[in-house]
Structures are given as C-alpha cells and as structure tokens.
From TrEMBL:
GO CC terms in record: plasma membrane
2Fe-2S ferredoxin-type domain residues: 6-93
Main enzyme class: oxidoreductase
Keywords on record: 2Fe-2S, 4Fe-4S, Iron, Iron-sulfur, Metal-binding, Oxidoreductase
EC number, UniProt record: 1.3.5.1, 1.3.5.4
Record flagged with keyword Repeat: no
Domain of life: Bacteria
CDD domains in the record: fer2 (cd00207)
Family under the similarity heading: Belongs to the succinate dehydrogenase/fumarate reductase iron-sulfur protein family.
Protein name per Swiss-Prot or TrEMBL: Succinate dehydrogenase / fumarate reductase iron-sulfur subunit
Length: 256
C-alpha cells in the first residue's frame, strides 16, 4: 500500500463568516475525500463539522464543493487528483452555512412541500393499482434520486440569485412535478390540478434555460434536463399554444 501527504484547504466558519484552513494529511490507496475529511477530524480538527451517513453514495448527505465542483465526498476518489494538487473543500454555496461543511438545506424541504403529492385514482384501493412497465419506464429514472441536492446547488437560477428562490423550485422538484405528470395513474387532472400549468406558473419552469449543469453533477446520472425538464417545457407550451390541445382540454373538462 502506498501513502502520501496531500494538501487540503477546508472551509471553516459559520453564519458569521469564515475562511479556508490548510491541512497536510495522509492519503492511502483507495481512499475517498470523505476519508480524508474524517482523518483531519480525527487527528487535527476534532470540531470540524461534516454531514454524512452511508459512505456509499446513497444517503445524499455528504454533498460539498470539491475544487469548486458540487460532488459527493464519499464518491470522490482521491485518485482523480494528482498528488501535487491542493484539494479545496467548501460547503454548498447555494444554501446558508450552519458550520464548516454543513449547510442548511431546508430550502429543498420547503420546495418539496410545495409540490402536490400523487393523487390516487378514484375507485381503486391500495393494492389494486396496475400499470404497464412501458408506462412507467420514463419516470422510473427519476426515482433514483438520492436527494443530495447537488443539482439544486449548481443551478445558476438560484446559485447566484437568492431573490429567485421564492419563485423557483429547482431541478430536483421540477423533475418531481414531471414524474407525477408522467405517472399513468395520477388523477390530479381529474381533481382540477394541471401539473404542467403549475410547473410553469408556480414552480418556475420558465426560469430554466436548459443549460444542463444540473444533469452534469447528478451522482445518479439522471438526465434531469433532457428527460424531465425539456419534455415538460414542450408539453406546457403545447398546452398553451396548440389550439387542438387547448380545445381538447376544454372538451374533456366539459364532458367530465
Ligand atoms: S438545466 Fe435548468 S434546472 Fe438545470 S441547471 Fe440549467 S437552468 Fe437549472
Ligand atoms: S436529481 Fe440527482 S443531483 Fe439532484 S438531488 Fe437527485 S440525485 Fe441529487
Ligand atoms: S455519505 Fe451517504 S452519500 Fe455520501
């Protein structure tokens, strides 16, 4: 086993302010950035605050920015960096810092609450739902989300514009609206809830200019922009400007 000493800069501070602190720390074969943060905690800075749970890329809690890029610390191998490189670890920039690498991601829970949940089909009880695999194939990809909020952190609509946070749900929750809109059994429309309209009017779909930065950082490889946001934009526009779609929705509403 070979080991070497790496140079790390880790952001330390709290809501009042802070800065980067330098550390020289041992690295062994096969380690990930979270191992090194834990070693710093164990040997040099016992009060260094860091959030993590699974160390397997599944709980979504160890999100941070490594050399400026939003990543999971537990899934970032030290071998992707050269031994000479200084590795900088900072908290997610889009959310308020609590302490050191821990941020307050409450914005995301608030946005989650604003998306109306699945509406069960009338007349069917739990256990009676039947769907064809081909009808759920498209939205199943979105269920892989681990809620790490890296996509929310990287999206420039809120990253540099705090003022947009009220009107914009962010890629993760626009994807949730798309998932429900594609759900073969969701009866929201029958209940008078037009998910395409709410995506546009209430969750800020129009702010997204399909830069695909969210897709690039998703550790689950979900094609957020291509498979959720763009199709939903197309459907929202169809609904608004296509006279046949508009007429169809009027007729359906009148006959129901
Ligand atoms: S594609 Fe849209 S949601 Fe994703 S980062 Fe770009 S602007 Fe944000
Ligand atoms: S869509 Fe991807 S990047 Fe966004 S919260 Fe889910 S897993 Fe994380
Ligand atoms: S510790 Fe769970 S995703 Fe990193």
């Amino acid at each position: 086993m070979s080991s070497y000493e790496a140079r790390f800069k880790v952001w330390r501070g709290d809501v009042e302010g802070g800065g980067l602190e330098d550390f020289g720390v041992e690295v062994n074969d096969g380690e990930v950035v979270l191992d090194i943060i834990h070693r710093i905690q164990a040997t040099q800075a016992p009060d260094l605050a860091v959030r993590w749970n699974c160390k397997a890329g599944k709980c979504g809690s160890c999100s941070a920015e490594i050399n400026g890029r939003p990543r999971l610390m537990c899934m970032t191998r030290m071998s992707v960096f050269t031994r000479e490189e200084t590795i900088t670890v900072t908290p997610l920039r889009t959310f308020p810092v609590i302490r050191d690498l821990v941020t307050d991601v409450g914005f995301n829970y608030q946005k989650a609450r604003e998306v109306p949940s699945f509406v069960p089909p009338p007349g069917l009880g739990p256990g009676e739902y039947r769907m064809f695999q081909e009808d759920v194939d498209r939205s199943q990809e979105f269920r892989k989300c681990i809620e790490c909020f890296l996509c929310q952190d990287t999206c420039h609509v809120v990253r540099d514009h705090e003022e947009n946070k009220t009107a914009f749900a962010g890629p993760r929750f626009l994807m949730r609206v798309a998932e429900l809109d594609m759900h073969p059994l969701d009866a929201a429309a029958e209940d008078g809830l037009d998910r395409k309209r709410t995506a546009q009017d209430e969750h800020g779909l129009g702010y997204c200019n399909i830069t695909k930065c969210c897709t690039e950082v998703c550790p689950e490889g979900i094609k957020i922009t291509d498979n959720a946001l763009i199709p939903m934009k197309e459907r929202a526009v169809d609904r608004k400007y296509d006279p046949l779609v508009w007429l169809g929705s009027k007729i359906r509403r009148r006959s129901s």
